[in-house]
Amino acid sequence: MASISTLGVGSGLDLSSILDSMQTAEKAALKPISAQQSSFTAKLSAYSTLKSALTTFQTANTKLNSADLFTATTATSSSSAFNATTSGSTVAGKYSISVSHLAQAQTLTSDIVKSNSTALGDSAASSRTMSITLKDGSSKDITLSSEQTSLTGMRDAINGADAGVTASIIKVSDGSYRLSITSSETGSANAVSTIKVTGDDTLQGIVGYDASTSSNGMTESVAAQNAKLTVNNVDVESSSNTISDALEGITLNLNDTTTGNQTLTITNDTSKAKTAITDWVSAYNTLQDTFSSLTKYTAVDVGSDSQSSSNGALLGDSTLRTIQSQLKSMLTNTASSSTFKTLAQIGVTSDPTTGELELDADKLSSSLTSNMSGVKEMIIGDGKTTGIATRVASNLTSWLSSTGIVQSATDGVSKTLNNLTDQYNKVNDRINNTIARLKTQFTQLDVVMSSLNQTSSYLTQQFESSSSSSSKN
After folding, report:
1. Do residues 167 and 181 make contact, with C-beta atoms less than 8 angstroms apart?
2. Which pLDDT value is given to residue 1?
3. DSSP letters of 227-279?
């Protein structure tokens, strides 16, 4: 039987067009599924946007939900000889400070040698050990090879030993070098007590040191010293120029000695709380903008059953509505023990039309200045269950958790999309199988029709030939 390479050749019918039309009609069953896929894909993206917006707001809320903001202080010094930093527990006040000595680290210096690279030890010594002992009793043994007895070699060995000192080389002039060893920490307790080289008397004579004698290879070029000062006429001594235990909640940083008494003033600082509240309001409004974008509604012509394509992907979404309404309900703290119960009382009001917050900077500043503790009580509360920022923090953590409502909604959409994909693939496979079966049937029809046409032509020729023969007889 003859084969047919093109549909319709055997039958004379436009079978290709018929098959295309049937395929188009069958494929129409995929359109509703595709539309649902597009809708749920948009929802999946929208939930991602919602989660990101909530996370950004959470960052601002975390900064606001800090009790230290409302106990912040600023330290001002009347002298450049010292400055100070404060903590959240610092109490405002004034202190008289006089600095007579700065803490300094001890420095030992060797005599001049002609080369920084020439070995200085006894070449006959089989081994040698440099022992460095500090006045606090700590000690480190450093084994030196013959090559390491040069100034460079000793410098590198000391610096690699973590011995409580650092070494360097001073070039005095061409052909004149000194080894310098400085305590890593300031203060008399961190000074070197002894440097002893065993196994090499030659090197001991060059770098040996004993604080109890005056005959040494190394000499003390800078003496170790503790910082000495008075605070409100009380003597204070410290091994460091950074003093954190003299005044509660205050760290003093000494830069120089003073001429007589100077003043350190600690004042309450409202700027940190004001900045945090301002940033929180801005972040809240940005979140509201995201809510509006995700739930945008555009009216369509009366009588139309379709929705505008510009509608937000989460229009009417219960998860977003729940978050939005619960968040709005947290903007007051009626349980506050202070006179402040609502944000409006400190200058933060809500626009009833947009839901966004409006900030009166002057009123906020006045509230913080007159009653910082009251503002803290309203916003922070007990730090566990009460307080605006505390409650918001708790809910944000819940909403954004792996078992929260945002993740649950996301998982639900993902599951629906997977089901739609399976449904689409099954329908598409059915359509493809149907079209393939019809194409086979059409091909068979072509073959049969072609065969019948050939038979018809043959019989016609036979009849015509028989008629011609009969007429001649």
Report:
1. yes
2. 40
3. EEEEETTEEEEESSSEEEEEETTEEEEE-S--SS-EEEEEEE--HHHHHHHHH
Provide the mean pLDDT of the chain: 88
Provide the token pair at 407.
Answer: 């993740």
CA distances from 143 to 196, 203, 233, 248 (A): 12, 13, 49, 45
Q: What is the tally of structural domains in the chain?
A: 3
Go through 280-306 and write b for each residue having 16 or more CB atoms within 10 A of its CB, e for each that does not: bbebbbebbebbeebbeeeeeeeeeee
Residue 3 has pLDDT above 50, yes or no: no
* DSSP, res 346: G
Q: Are residues 392 and 330 in the same domain?
A: yes
173: three-class secondary structure by DSSP: strand
Report the distance separating Cα 27 and Cα 32, nearest Å.
10
> Structural domain of residue 121, as residue ranges?
107-222
Ramachandran region, residue 323 (left: φ > 0; alpha: ψ -120 to 50; beta: rest):
alpha
Q: For residues 8 and 116, state if they share a domain.
A: no
Residue 96 shares a structural domain with residue 195: no
**233-266 pLDDT per residue, tens:** 999 999 999 999 999 999 999 999 999 999 999 9
Considering only residues 121 and 422, tell me which one the structure prediction assigns the higher pLDDT.
Answer: 121
pLDDT in tens, 319-357: 999 999 999 999 988 888 889 999 999 999 999 888 899
Closest to 155 in 3D by CA, of 200, 190, 110 = 110
> Which residues are CB-neighbours of 112 under 8 A, at least 6 positions away?
172, 176, 177, 178
Please give the Cα distance from 405 to 237 (Å, whole number). 58
> Are β-strands 348-350 and 262-268 bridged in parallel, bridged antiparallel, or unpaired?
unpaired
Backbone angles phi, psi at 60, to 5 degrees: -65, -40
Q: What is the pTM of this model?
A: 0.64
Residues 278 and 195 reside in one and the same domain:
no
